[in-house]
Amino acid sequence: MVAMRLGRAPARGDGIWAVNNRPSRVLENMIEETLGRVMALDLGEKRIGVAISDETRLVASSHSVINRKSKREDFARYQAIIDDQGICLLVMGLPITLGGEEGQRAQWVRGYTAEMEKHISVPVVLWDESLSTVDAQASLRSRGKSGKKLHGWVDAAAAAFILQSYLDAHLSDRRTREQGAL
User: How far are the Cα atoms of 42, 43, 89 from residue 159, in angstroms, in the given order?
Assistant: First the structure.
């Protein structure tokens, strides 16, 4: 099942989820209320950055960089991480332009994600990845990484930025729901 977030980053808390292109508030509530580790992917043509959250979904951490070989092997590697880390949700970075549009790259990611979801055991959420690579490069440089060291980890750091953005948006939503329940 692929759950796709519809809308731009500023509207994340008010967005709509879609399953097979049909809006689903039930799925949104189910995914947001479930605790457990979340994995994010920053999909590139040659490398895939992987990040994982803690079980409380507060902190995202870079996990690894996967050198792409074939889709079949990529999907098997994701499932191995899902099984090993106890992942219950996968967040896929979706490249949205600064103008809020989806280009060819976003369509490629959507197609890849639709195929991937047939081979993994957890729901998938698409999430705006705008400027995640720029933020990752700046963060790594500020920690003294440069050259090949920077190049090697930028994809995993970008995945961590994507995941942290997702976690922060949903933490705010969870807190709002908790306050309303009091």
Answer: 5, 9, 14
**Is the model's pLDDT at 66 over the cut of 50?**
yes
Higher pLDDT, 143 or 125: 125
User: Residue 47's domain is classified under what CATH number?
Assistant: 3.30.420.140
Overall number of domains in the chain: 1
What does the alpha-carbon distance between residue 8 and residue 163 come to, in Å, rounded to a whole number?
A: 16
pTM recorded for the entire structure? 0.74
Residue 181 lies in a domain: no
The residue segments making up the domain with residue 81 are 2-176
The angle formed by the CA atoms of residues 72, 44 and 80, to the nearest 5 degrees, is: 40
* Positions of E strands within the chain: 2-6, 16-19, 22-23, 37-43, 47-53, 60-67, 87-94, 124-128
Q: Is residue 182 part of a domain?
A: no
**Residues whose CB falls within 8 Å of the CB of residue 154, separated by 6 or more in sequence, listed in order:** 49, 133, 136, 137, 140
pLDDT band, residue 97 (cuts 50/70/90): confident
3-state SS class at 78: helix
In a domain, residue 136? The reply is yes
Read off the pLDDT of residues 165-182 as tens digits, 9 standing for 90 and up.
899 888 765 555 555 555
